[in-house]
Specification:
Elements (H helix, E strand, L loop, with lengths): L2 H8 L17 E4 L2 E4 L22 H23 L5 E12 L7 H16 L6 E7 L8 E9 L2
Parallel strand pairs: 3-4
Antiparallel strand pairs: 1-2, 2-5, 3-5
Helix pairs in contact: 2-3
Length: about 150
């Protein structure tokens, strides 16, 4: 078991299976020293646990938890390309999209769910640049979607 997966176990987390693509794309691709993930929805065993807009049907706290699920799904996608999460040099950039009610402005707090989890799992390697964007709607009416760019060794 890799050090990263040992850390996941310490946190009581399990790396999920890679979420199958919903359309014509790959969950993650490698180009040189970088892996780019597709946007990861907060799928759990093939289903979205919640749908709707943050600030309306979904609370900011619920969305923050969903963003953490997106991050786990993203790590699974990265592992599918590099085989061993210990090859992660650094999470370089996280981009998160929050399906937002018209008056919701807490997108950064929602994305903290992903950012904080990556930091807990990877330590300094999980510290990254980030964008948090409010959008009208996401695929399958998901409340949040997260993608990232990862520098890897080997």
């Amino acid at each position: 078991m890799s050090a990263v997966e040992s850390r996941l176990a310490e946190l009581g987390l399990t790396l999920p299976e890679v979420v199958p693509p919903l359309a014509s794309y790959q969950p993650a691709v490698r180009s040189g020293a970088y892996v780019y993930t597709a946007g990861q929805l907060p799928m759990v065993q093939g289903k979205l646990p919640l749908t709707g807009k943050v600030g309306a049907e979904v609370s900011a706290e619920q969305a923050k938890e969903l963003a953490a699920t997106c991050a786990l799904n993203g790590l699974a996608a990265v592992k599918s390309v590099i085989g061993d999460l210990d090859k992660i040099v650094r999470i370089v950039k996280v981009v998160g999209f929050v399906a937002s009610a018209p008056d919701f402005t807490g997108q950064p707090g929602v994305l903290n769910g992903a950012s904080e989890l990556l930091g807990e799992i990877l330590g300094e390697k999980g510290v990254h640049a980030r964008s948090a964007v409010g959008v009208a709607v996401l695929p399958l009416d998901a409340p949040v979607e997260v993608e990232f760019q990862v520098e890897v060794a080997g």
